Structures are given as structure tokens and as C-alpha cells.
């Protein structure tokens, strides 16, 4: 019995050591920005939003025009009212190819977030938003952008300006690929 415990302990130490010596890294990939046209509440907890147009720009070259994005969001009924996001975007790239972007994520509202909506103010990390991350996937048949089909990508929200009257709002992300 002691031998089995020793073997299991040794294996766990090796796994922990290997995990701590090779953590995943984030490498900046580019940025995504699109207009926030309107948000429509379905009930107390569910909403959908209309986004676009906008743009995507990659650090190593290339860009595209965001035609339209649709979001379905769900306010989680906890004391913080975390927002669960599901978004899909159709983008026309500079090589005239189509790029589909989808992401799922969370916005953890901070102090003052909900008060910024009605007057059309901007929320950012540490100014209305405590945390804002998404898991992003791309799909395209473009040769130029085919590498995106194989990447694991994290979107980090940087700012959200809420619409007011006829003035559109705006949503901005930095995009990072995960590397070893």
C-alpha cells in the first residue's frame, strides 16, 4: 500500500512540475472593433444585440470589414449579474474571402457598470468592468487566413461604449492566440 501511495505521489509531483514549467502563453494577434447599434431585452435575464459594421486588424498583416454581428446574452442571476455572451460575426477580409467569427465569454460587471448604460457612457476594465474574456474561433476557406482555423484564441474586451439616441455604441477587443 505504501508503494502505491509513493508511486501516485511521485506521478502527481511530476505532473505538477511539468505543468508549472511549460505554461501556456498569450501572443497578441490583433484587434476587433464593431459598432453596438442596439440591445433588446427579451425578459429580465435574456437579451440580444445588433452589432456592426466594424473592423478586424491582424498585427502581422491583413484586415477585414465586420458586416454584422449578433449576440445572445444571458444575465446570470447571481449577486454580480455576470453576463454570458454568445456572438457570431460575418466578416469580409481584404482578400475578398469570408471569415466567420464566433465567441463565447463572460463580462463580470464592476461598480457602476449598469449605471453607464442609460446615459451612453463607456465601460472598461477597472471602470465598470471587473473581467471580460471570450473564447474565439474562426472559420474560413481563405488561403491567406487559413491559419486562423487552427488557433485557440482569447478575446480580451477593452472597452464598451453604450449607444444613446441616434449615436451608436462601440465594442473593442484585443485578440491573442494561445501558444506553448
Overview of this structure, please?
It is a single chain. By secondary structure, the chain is mainly beta. The chain has helices at 2-21, 113-117; strands spanning 25-41, 46-58, 63-75, 83-93, 98-109, 122-125, 128-139, 153-161, 169-179. Strands 1, 2, 3, 4, 5, 6, 7, 8 and 9 form a 9-stranded mixed beta sheet that branches.
Shape verdict: globular
Low-confidence stretches: none
What is the total tally of β strands? 9
Report the span from N to C terminus: 37 Å
DSSP strand content: over 45%
Number of helices: 2
Query: Approximately how much helix is present in the residues?
Result: 10-25%
- Sketch the topology as an H/E string, one letter per element: HEEEEEHEEEE
Average pLDDT across residues? 90
The value of Rg in angstroms is: 20 Å
Structural class: mainly beta
The profile of the biggest β sheet is:
9 strands, mixed
Summarize the structure.
This protein is 14% helix and 57% strand.
Show the helix and strand layout:
Blueprint: H1 2-21, E1 25-41, E2 46-58, E3 63-75, E4 83-93, E5 98-109, H2 113-117, E6 122-125, E7 128-139, E8 153-161, E9 169-179
Amino acid at each position: 500500500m505504501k508503494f502505491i501511495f509513493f508511486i501516485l505521489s511521485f506521478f502527481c509531483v511530476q505532473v505538477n512540475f511539468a505543468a508549472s514549467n511549460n505554461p501556456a502563453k498569450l501572443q497578441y494577434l490583433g484587434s476587433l472593433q464593431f459598432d453596438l447599434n442596439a440591445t433588446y431585452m427579451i425578459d429580465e435575464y435574456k437579451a440580444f444585440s445588433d452589432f456592426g459594421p466594424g473592423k478586424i486588424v491582424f498585427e502581422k498583416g491583413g484586415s477585414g470589414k465586420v458586416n454584422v454581428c449578433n449576440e445572445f446574452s444571458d444575465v446570470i442571476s447571481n449577486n454580480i449579474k455576470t453576463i454570458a455572451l454568445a456572438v457570431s460575426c460575418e466578416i469580409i477580409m481584404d482578400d475578398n474571402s469570408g471569415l466567420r467569427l464566433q465567441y463565447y465569454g463572460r463580462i463580470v460587471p464592476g461598480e457602476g457598470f449598469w449605471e453607464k448604460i442609460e446615459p451612453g457612457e463607456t465601460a472598461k476594465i477597472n471602470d465598470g468592468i471587473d473581467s471580460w474574456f471570450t473564447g474565439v474561433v474562426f472559420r474560413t476557406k481563405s488561403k491567406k487566413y487559413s491559419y486562423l482555423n487552427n488557433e485557440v484564441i482569447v478575446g480580451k474586451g477593452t472597452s464598451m461604449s453604450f449607444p444613446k439616441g441616434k449615436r451608436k455604441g462601440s465594442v473593442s477587443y484585443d485578440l491573442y492566440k494561445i501558444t506553448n
